[in-house]
Amino acid sequence: MQGCRDYQGNKAMISIEAASVTTEPQTFAVPRLRIGDLDIGFPCVQAALSGYSDWPMRLLAREHGASYTVCEVMLDQFLVSLKDRQKNRHFLYNTPEEQPVAGQLMGAEPEQFVAGAQKLVEAGFAVIDINFGCPVKKVLGRCRGGFHLTQPRVALEIVRRTRDTVPPNIPVTVKMRRGMDDSSESRDNFFQILEGVFDAGLSAATVHGRTVLQRYNGPSRWEFLREVKQAFPNRTILGSGDLFTAADCFRMMQQTGIDGVTIARGAIGNPWIFQQARALAEGLPLPAPPTVSVQRAVMLRHWELSESLYGPVRTPTLMRKFGIKYSASHPLHLEVRPCFAQIRSKQQWLSVLDQWYGYDSPGVYPSSAGFQDQTEGCSD
What we know:
This protein is an alpha/beta fold and 380 residues long.
């Protein structure tokens, strides 16, 4: 596995070819990402993914080249009442080798939000990320996530109180979508909130190019990210939405001028996307997809990490969804995928690996269509 080498930034001019290969390659300087006083370096990071970006997934992303990761979103109300028990330890679990890692928080009331942020600080997260982007209906119905884009006053009260409570050395950031919908009112709310976010001292904003009501349907509007960066040229802006290949990451940065990207669905079962992105940033050719034997080794490690955190009883159910995603890199993915969907035990997991990953052959790049399913929870 490729470790996280120091990323110099601004020195490498990379060539990004259009996916259609109908235009001439263009070059641009890859930026070096900073979030507050944190020197992140490589500008391709792993986004928060509900139900996915737990410690095993984050650690694997780091080992394959991600410079920074974000924990799956947690509810302030849940954190405030969370008991320190063995069965709950995975929620706040993080380790030194994956730092810096951010804890993402979502809620409705400023008071509870602040209390939840304190829990994340106590747990050792290096950054506190505020979720104003989740499009899940049950979240919106409880005035959380993307709902805050309709109420700038409440959103900015949460932002200010969180920034005032979190120690000054810990950056606070925000994740937003481009608005609730495409109305002029939503647009005005977005820019009012984002301006207030930076005035309150937040260090960075991640902007997803879809609206809340759009969820994951239709393309992400990267041109909106360009507008945001032009409006806030001296602020750290990261982009999100439709990042399914390493080349996508650099196209987004090149086309919009943003400072970095957060890879969400494109990283599930595909930690190699960070390794591939680092190669492009260094001016190297795009690496070949991981071979079947390389995939097997990573999947075995993922299981062991998961089992060490969750225990042998819970791990099979949790790993089933990851196996389905990993199968997209197998040359016979249509046959392999259903086998992972039936996993109920470690022995079954090992049997699938023996049957389909017990030999070596070239892998394939996952089809972007395979990432288009609406992954459960707040993602991308």
